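Re: the 602-residue chain
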Amino acid sequence: MTTTDHIRNFCIIAHIDHGKSTLADRLLQLTGTLSDRQMTEQVLDSMDLEREKGVTIKASAVRMNYTAQDGKTYQLNLIDTPGHVDFGYEVSRALAACEGALLVVDASQGIEAQTLANLYLGLEADLEIIPVINKIDLPAAMPDDVAQEIENLLGTPQEEIIRISAKEGTNVSAVLEAIVEQVPPPRGEADAPLRALIFDSHYDPYKGVIAYVRVVDGQVRGGDTLRLMATAADVKPVEVGIFAPDLKPTPGLGPGEVGYVATGLKTVHECRVGDTFTTARQPAAQPLPGYRPAKPMVFAGIYPVDGEDYADLRDALEKLQLNDAALVFEPETSQALNFGFRCGFLGMFHMEIVQERLEREYDLNIIVTAPSVQYEVVMRETGEVLLIDSPAELPDEGLIAEIREPWMKIQIFTPTEFYGAVMELATKRRGVFVDQDYPAPNRVQLNFEIPLSELIVDFFDQLKSRTRGYASLDYQFLEYRAEDLQRLEILVNNEPVDALASIVHKKDAYHRGQALISKLKDLIPRQMFTVPIQAKAGGRIISRANVKALRKDVLSKCYGGDVTRKKKLLERQKKGKKRMKMIGSVEVPQEAFMAVLRLGDD
């Protein structure tokens, strides 16, 4: 076991596409952890989706041995964090496993909202922050301006900020020296009862759940029986080891070290991120702080296009859940879409990732309904609070005392020229302005409170298009607030279609109902009879349109002659249509369900 003086645990915090994974690649090459033959672009991003979207989705870790200029060899543990706001809790646990963080900022873009959010998490976790300006080789780079921004934010003198190009490998060795000099060694007692923080996990078909751990106190040995403090499950490790960057078994892990424990457990639910490992023989008195169960924020129905794929969809979701404890699902039936699942996600990006993985990795053809959020409904008679994540579950209006919806705190970073566009977008979506800050010349940070239901549909896309891609957004859950909400139902041929229902604010119900009806009128195919489409809210019809019937010209053979003969023929046709309407049913096409999603700012 090495003494903790030679250990440095650090992570890299950065906005999406600021060069975090590329810098990790260069560090692996410089320390000789990977030979040039083993090297690929973005080694730590193993998923195709991660490489395509330029964002780390799953955290990973790697151990590097580095001989510094003082002649000593140091063990550097890099803990790679997910790079998207939806995975904020996972980021906070990864930061808790470190003593220092590299703050990577793109020289052409400056500080973004995501960088700032993770920086605050890092400062809360009391990490040593080392600012690094990346991409100095770009023609649009403004390293001096960005250095000024960082100095204003952190107080680090400009001349001490490391300037690198991770892609070209320029000055990256200075980063390694800064980690050795500035990041404090971990503190921990080898003789104390074991406490090891789980900062991530993944499922392996042969070894069960593999927990990524940072040992704080005590030692993990291969033969010990370990206990998970939140779930009280006991496990006998199949294997203990380190990341080099592939899994490499070792006899054990000492205080301050980062490695993995292959538990043999069959589901990630028993081995949650943020939990603490201790030994069953000599358990620790207190778990490490900060654990909380993952809580889904956005819900949507996932249905197979072909009903026969239902079993395959269930298997695919179960396999995804093995690696992703935040994904929750339960069976659901819909009159319009038949059998499917109600799934809970951490946010819209998480939902998009799950949807793409189902289609790509499991080759499924699926329909995803419009996303909704979880509401708290207080019942009038009993005062009982129900949690509802589907508009179809909302009780009758007369039984409800109030409906509370989740509100978020959001920070938007934007160049000052887009101030008006951002303000207009946020207030249009029921956002409440809180305050503003100017962290650098020509850049403004706007803070709002906004309902989550307004944020999830296409807020981010609208923000990007209105600011030409320059604005960045970060959000955290704030509280549940009572609002004037009601269910907006859509009736096709006098039958309610549950998958088209949504929960909206009373003042928006009329406009949304009207916009949706006019879209559906074009999407629903014409039948042999007239099909009424209606929007209903607050117990009354607020909008209606008819899909005209396909007609046969029964008067074609009557030209001239008595008008009563024409009336007789039309009357007979009317009776036939009436009879057809009583037994006819209307198929609602898939595009109609997507119309709810695409209402946007119409």
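Residues 195-279 form a domain with the Elongation Factor Tu (Ef-tu); domain 3 fold (CATH 2.40.30.10).
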